[in-house]
Amino acid sequence: MSAKQNEGVVAAQDEAGIPGILVGVSVDGKEVWSEGLGYADVENRVVCKPETVMRIASISKCLTMMAVAKLWEEGKLDLDAPVQKYVPEFPEKVYEGEKVTITTRQLVSHLSGIRHYEKDITKVKEEKEKANRALKLTKSHQDKEEKAKEGKGTENTGCVKQKKEHDSEMKSRNSKPGRNDKEFEQEEYYLKEKFESVIESLKIFKNDPLFFKPGSQFLYSTYGFTLLSAVVERASGQKFTDYMLKIFRDLDMLSTVLDDNEAMIYNRARCYIYNKKGRLVNAPYVDNSYKWAGGGFLSSVGDLLKFGNALLYSYQAGQFKNKNGKLLPGYLKPSTVAMMWTPVPKTEVSWDRDGKYAMAWAVVEKNQQCGCCRQQRHYASHTGGAVGASSVLLILPEELDPEAVGPWPVAPPRGVIVTIICNMQSVSLNSTALKIAREFDREKQAQCVG
Q1: pLDDT tens sequence across 126-145
Q2: What does pTM read for this prediction?
Q3: CA 77, CA 70: separation in Å to the nearest integer?
Q4: pLDDT of amino acid 13
Q5: What pLDDT, on the 0 to 100 scale, is given for residue 403?
Q6: At residue 327, does pLDDT exceed 70?
Q7: Burial 8-34 (b: 16+ CB within 10 A, else e)
Q8: Any idea what DSSP says for residue 39?
Q9: Is the peptide bond before 412 cis (omega within 30 degrees of 0)?
Q10: Which of 96, 187, 354, 441 has its CA 20 to 30 A from that of 393?
Q11: Which residue in the list 26, 34, 58, 431 is annotated as catalytic?
């Protein structure tokens, strides 16, 4: 690991005032960097280490998607059937006087119309309209810039892109973490009730009206994943939590567990926020049993790298020659992961303007519009924000040449995976993760050339 690679994480920690941060990187399936910086427990001066476990927040959605995909492959779950086929406890819905259907496919891409934490439908629609207007203005400005550049001849836009990324990230960092995110003003973020089952937790939102017609608009919803957990439970014939723990064992993710306040969980970090006076304090007590699927798991960077590599291996396995049957099958079929990582129309991604939401993943597609200009690599990512925690998991697959992929021992996974977790809420980590991934990818390419 170079000083430059470490610099990005240290800068993010220092500038955002994060008590503790974990970073993990793997290249071609091998863990090359796993480190803890700062404190897992500030009061008792317990330092972070690679084995430290923290809240992974919405990366939990990616783990849940693995379960959905497995059940779909096994023919136990129909992505396009009404959710009531599996969960009759969830009432049939009507939108503007018309009976509508919610499917599992819509749930995993946030197209169901089910609300998030904000209950006021008027506020949500106003925010959506405001965001859409801002997006149109941004695109119009970008189009004008592109036309101006074309008039001046070929120009490398990489520096412009990097400056915009830097300005955006600095703006995010200079605002105090743990305080300014409007989402954390919602009361339901701080639920303290312990729910004994995922079916029971449906009562929070199941009788609320839909905010949009299913399939018509994107509305990020953790409650949509609470309903999804009930679908998984019924399709699998097991308790949702038991089925997920089985998957974690299959993937050798032995440090990934439920964020259960009562359980003795070794190496668990404490969570922190900044109060109104800008002082570091312990995060308020919450019980995340109402959202296991959408934001209720704890994990380590080592486990998240294993998870990412299992997906990357599955995605690429079909592109390698299986000499003498030595190449084992992936946990999922290549076509399944390809489906999961295919951008879905009408979706958007708050943490990456180049991306679209797919199935529980944000995906940026390979793209280059002009010669000698910025090349957009294909990658998948998900960020997370929880009370007292922030996270990111990013997978940058190697661009494989079908002609160049030879026989064994060259084998999947091929690419860079980066994960960062910290015990402070409202910290933007996606840009840092992408920079780290690109740096390791450049180093790998340089070694290949050398």
Answers
A1: 888 887 777 667 656 655 65
A2: 0.88
A3: 9
A4: 63
A5: 58
A6: yes
A7: bbeebbeebbbbbbbbbbbbbbebbbb
A8: E
A9: no
A10: 187
A11: 58
Instruction: Report the distance separating Cα 67 and Cα 64, nearest Å.
Output: 5
pLDDT for position 242:
98
Length of the chain: 450
Question: Rounded to an integer, what is the distance from CA 171 to the centroid of its chain?
Answer: 22
Vertex 22 angle, CA 13 and 350, to 5°: 70
Is the predicted pLDDT of residue 231 greater than 60, yes or no?
Answer: yes
**Please, are residues 45 and 39 in contact by the beta-carbon 8 Å criterion?**
yes
* Residue given tokens 């090349």 in the structure block: 375
d(CA 1, CA 428): 23
Q: What is the pLDDT of residues 85-97, one digit of tens each?
A: 999 999 999 999 9
Predicted confidence (pLDDT) at residue 100 exceeds the cutoff of 60:
yes
Task: Tell the burial category of 181 from Cβ atoms under 10 Å away from its Cβ (0-12, 13-18, 19+).
Answer: middle
Closest listed residue to residue 108, CA positions, set 238, 188, 227: 227
58 counts as catalytic? yes
DSSP 404-444: T--STT--S--EEEEEEEESBSS---HHHHHHHHHHHHHHH
Residue 58, judged by CB atoms within 10 A of its CB (0-12, 13-18, 19+), counts as: buried
Q: Which residue has the tokens 């160049």?
A: 404
Residue type, 396: L
The pair of three-digit structure tokens given for residue 180, joined into one six-digit string? 């300014």
DSSP string, 217-239: S----HHHHHHHHHHHHHHHTS-
- pLDDT score of 179 more than 50: no
CA–CA separation, 135 vs 151, rounded Å?
24
Q: Which residues does 374 contact at the CB level (< 8 Å), separation at least 6?
A: 156, 157, 158, 161, 368
